[in-house]
Design brief:
Layout (H helix, E strand, L loop, with lengths): L9 H12 L2 H14 L4 H25 L5 H43 L6 H18 L1 H24 L18 H11 L9 H4 L6 H30 L1 H4 L5 H7 L11 H30 L5 H18 L3
Helix pairs in contact: 1-6, 1-9, 2-4, 2-7, 2-9, 3-7, 3-9, 4-12, 4-13, 5-12, 5-13, 6-12, 11-12, 12-13
Amino acid sequence: AVRDSRKISAWQVFFLLMLLMNGAYSLLLPQMVGQRLNHADGSLVILATTVVALVLLWLIKGIAQSFPAKGLTTYLPEVLGKAGGKIAGGLFCAFLAFLTVVFMASFHEMLGAELLPTTPRWLTMTATFVLIGWIVGNGLEDIARFSTLLAPLIILTLVLVLLGNVQDMHLVNVLPFGGSEWTDRFITIQLVLQIFLPICILLVLYPRVLEQEKVWHLAAISIVASGIYQALMFFAVIAIFGATEGIRIIWPLVELARMVRIGPFLERLEALFIAIWMSIAFLNGSILTYCTVQSWRDLWPKQPRRRNTALIFLTIWLGTLAVND
């Protein structure tokens, strides 16, 4: 069979999801969980949320398989009626734009704090969105290839950040294990679920995937792997810095990277980590922007494509600019 070059493989979707679920939220998660629970049992809450995310994936699968050749905003008017479908489709596009703003705002906050403290934020954001506009214009295939090329290096670096700090973990910092209120745990589950929300892009990507049945198995693996990594990372932050000090650090994962030494060849992992995180932010911004643009185009197929694209880019750019650090 001849491969359709306009479609991407299930493995490419797997790498895209891995980067999305371990992107900006890895920087935000320790504080997000620690400020409410302040105990190492936050790791258990993250694992519990992973199960909730698998249920969400099952719901997404049921929706997408009913319309295997169409994106969500294409068939919503068929299901909900023209008016209802347009409203629901518009809300879905707004949701994707919101995710994009969250990812890009957290990236630019870290970029400004760690590398470019004197550079105006609007300038770095504009430069980033110009690059994102270029790769989105080239199509989904380029984003997928770029992700597949960098994903192994990115995943290896994330693993090294944890393994390189094992000797600095102290069990006394995570004891007693437990103690949080159940109400706080349930609220935290809702917060942590944000990590897994990018799997909703499967509703956009599904008609553009070659192995449609295989993609669900790989998506489930990406959810489980991401959940385990996030739980271990939170545990490591508490075990190394302590429950009180750990949540005071603005970027705990960056601090963990600073502490890693890999012999004389690479004394510090920090520089490589920040460079890789820039790649993650670029890829995340690209795929989420692509999905937002494509969903809006599918919702309004008769509208000029360039005008729709410009509208989405302007909305996301202004939204990111408006977010305070």
